[in-house]
Design brief:
Distance between the termini: 125 Å
Number of helices: 13
Structural class: alpha/beta
Number of strands: 11
CATH architecture of the largest domain: 3-Layer(aba) Sandwich
Strand content: 5-15%
CATH topology of the largest domain: Rossmann fold
Mean pLDDT: 77
Largest sheet: 5 strands, parallel
Helix content: 40-55%
Strand order of the largest sheet: 5-3-1-8-9
Number of domains: 3
Low-confidence stretches: 48-82
Radius of gyration: 40 Å
């Protein structure tokens, strides 16, 4: 009787532990209706009802649709994101602002131009470092233009103020250049500044190499932020490769020979010769030697034929 009741309620979807508890409380001779009422009173539910009550995480998508749930992401989707292939940008706010203001005015608009330029390229990590005392009202000896831009950039978590305080009426300012180089070094990013940071180069040899290889200089041309196309010189990487973590190597292009068909270097010439594409590139002297050897060899063979009986 016990086994038959167990099989009956198991087919309905109830768990064995709940059924055993009810049968122990009511006895083996309890009616099926009483057992069912006790299971309902205990709050036990069939497994089929529990699976229906739980909201399904996966939803049916119409055929031909490629949409996915907003919370779900494919594995490796972050790695394929183009923003992850770009380096972090750390901007020397004081240097950029004073450069845009012709070293007379702290122009906050210059900082905004630099930030917008990197945003348009797709950079997501952009930090600007500015001393905290630039938050104070402007004075005659340190004029500031468009100071409201600093507040907007701070709300966007782009601008970072380096600490400063006043001790007995004198302002104590922390060295903001150290913040800039340290954050850029830890993030393996790029420093945007026209300063060479020579004191920090002498302080740390690792920072010396990093500043030499990751310093991006710039110019302002008619309120336009313009970094150079060759940040490390004519023989260095392009600007796009300089700002990306995975540089793209350009295809090797052969430069045509300036002498053309008059070139006498032959196979030793390092330039491209379209007329020698399918033939051995011999020098003119080697070609003359090869031509003179052929008739001499033919003449010796004829003499041998005549002498032989």
């Amino acid at each position: 009787v016990h086994q038959s009741k167990m099989d009956f309620f198991c087919k309905l979807g109830y768990g064995k532990q709940d059924i055993c508890k009810v049968l122990e409380n009511l006895g083996q001779e309890a009616l099926e209706d009483d057992v069912l009422k006790e299971l309902i009173r205990m709050g036990s539910k069939p497994q089929a009802l529990e699976s229906q009550a739980q909201p399904s995480q996966l939803k049916l998508v119409a055929r031909g649709s490629c949409s996915t749930a907003p919370g779900l992401k494919w594995l490796g989707e972050e790695e394929r994101d183009s923003s992850n292939s770009l380096r972090a940008i750390v901007i020397d706010g004081s240097n950029v602002a004073m450069s845009h203001g012709n070293k007379e005015v702290f122009s906050c608009w210059g900082i905004q131009l630099a930030v917008d330029w990197f945003r348009e390229r797709g950079h997501t990590y952009i930090k600007v470092f500015v001393p905290l005392w630039r938050k104070e009202p402007p004075r005659q000896d340190s004029p500031i233009a468009d100071q409201h831009i600093l507040e907007e950039l701070e709300k966007q978590s782009i601008l970072v103020y380096t600490p400063s305080r006043k001790v007995k009426g004198k302002r104590v300012v922390c060295y903001d250049d150290r913040y800039i180089v340290k954050v850029a070094y830890e993030r393996d990013g790029v420093i945007v500044s026209n300063d060479h940071y020579r004191d920090l180069q002498n302080e740390n040899p690792e920072w010396k190499w990093f500043i030499e290889q990751r310093l991006l200089m710039y110019s302002f041309v008619s309120n336009r932020f313009m970094p150079p196309d060759d940040p490390l010189g004519r023989h260095g990487p392009t600007l796009s490769n300089f700002l990306s973590k995975q540089p793209v190597l350009p295809e090797k292009k052969w430069q045509p020979c300036p002498y053309g068909k008059k070139c006498t270097y032959g196979n030793k010439c390092k330039f491209y010769h379209p007329e020698r594409q399918y033939q051995a590139q011999l020098s003119v002297a080697d070609e003359l030697r090869a031509k003179t050897k052929v008739p001499l060899a033919l003449g010796k063979e004829e003499e041998r034929c005549q002498c032989s009986p």
